[in-house]
């Protein structure tokens, strides 16, 4: 049975920075309150021309470069987002098109902030089954578009960004070692985007009542998160036959510094074993774990051979953890430049649209 190795990683964040002081100008809050209660100092906000797909593509190109893969080498793209570009088509399909990953199947997976753990596990399982070799997993968000900028309970928390992993099959032991996935739909109300779906389609009233924004019972989510984070990490470690002594790093979902502190206490691990960057990006939902991972890899904290636990929680409610032995790129001789495919992809996409229009005209005539 092949092993599923994480061989590439990349991230993209928008340039514009929104500080706590900036927020204090639009809602009744303060830098001190936000830092004390969340650990967040600033977050990135997407420009008008930045979307989950464009940020996702940037992160993916970096990940493909690290893994030394062409977009056309990909068999599957799984995108996970709490702020997808559309209901459908899937953001994964937009990324597939923009990358020029012509041989890849692509779909979205929705598990809110736990999405990246669920998606990475699904990618690993597909590789372990022997049916595919190269998978791209993308977590990407422009949550700023779904935040009520008048609601100080939520607008201080979220930020935009994207992160991506490439997973590849190899006979060498290592890579993803274990994973646990959990859900409890009975807690769905505590964090939701109430309108826009089939239950509450968009109307003047839903817009007027602010139901297209994120709604959150912060205290309830906080209690849930502190209950499940440490437990999920322990379960995944046990499944891999490891303890906290065996691992070099924990990379948690970056929602709130105090939640991470509680998980560290539960696991009896020092905080310096946790990769934390919530101060600079806020909560980027599905992108938070890969962004923290990429920064740790780029700084040289996370090294090949290191054992790591990824752990997260989110709306649904969902929570989960995944353990992996960090690999790094598999040895290959060629050097590829995945960004060059972007131009081919644009031209190809344009011509495919024209061909579909022409086919449509002839098909109608045949009828
Ligand atoms: O990916 C999952 C996403 N969600 C989360 O992770 C959220 C988890 N929850 C949390 O992180 C915390 O519950 C929050 C940071 C959202 C809130 O912190 P808290 O310590 O639970 O504060 P609180 O909701 O109990 O509010 C305490 C007080 C309230 O005032 P009163 O009723 O005591 O007068 C709030 O109105 O703080 C007030 N408050 C604020 N004050 C200044 C709430 N938000 C703010 C704010 N600035 N931004």
Explain how this protein is built:
With about 375 residues, this protein is an alpha/beta fold. The chain has a single domain, classed as 3-Layer(aba) Sandwich (Peroxisomal Thiolase, Chain A, domain 1). The protein is built from eleven helices and 13 strands. Helix 3 (about 50-65) crosses helix 4 (about 90-100) and helix 7 runs parallel beside helix 8. The chain is globular and about 65 Å long. The mean pLDDT is about 95. Oxa(dethia)-CoA (UT7) binds near residues 33, 34, 113 and 216. The site of oxa(dethia)-CoA has 19 residues, from helix 2 and helix 7.
How is the topology of this model organized?
Elements: E1 3-12, E2 17-19, H1 20-24, H2 31-38, E3 42-44, H3 52-67, E4 76-80, H4 91-99, E5 105-109, H5 115-128, E6 134-141, E7 161-170, E8 175-183, E9 191-192, H6 204-208, E10 215-216, H7 218-239, E11 249-252, H8 257-267, H9 278-281, H10 288-298, E12 307-314, E13 318-325, H11 341-366
Helix pairs in contact: 3-4, 7-8
Number of extended strands: 13
Kindly state the percentage of residues in helix. Answer: 25-40%
Rounded Rg:
21 Å
| Gap between N and C termini | 50 Å
CATH third-tier fold name: Peroxisomal Thiolase, Chain A, domain 1
Shape: globular
Main sheet: strand order: 1-7-6-4-5
Separate helix tally: 11
**Unreliable segments of 5+ consecutive residues:** none
Structure ligands: oxa(dethia)-CoA
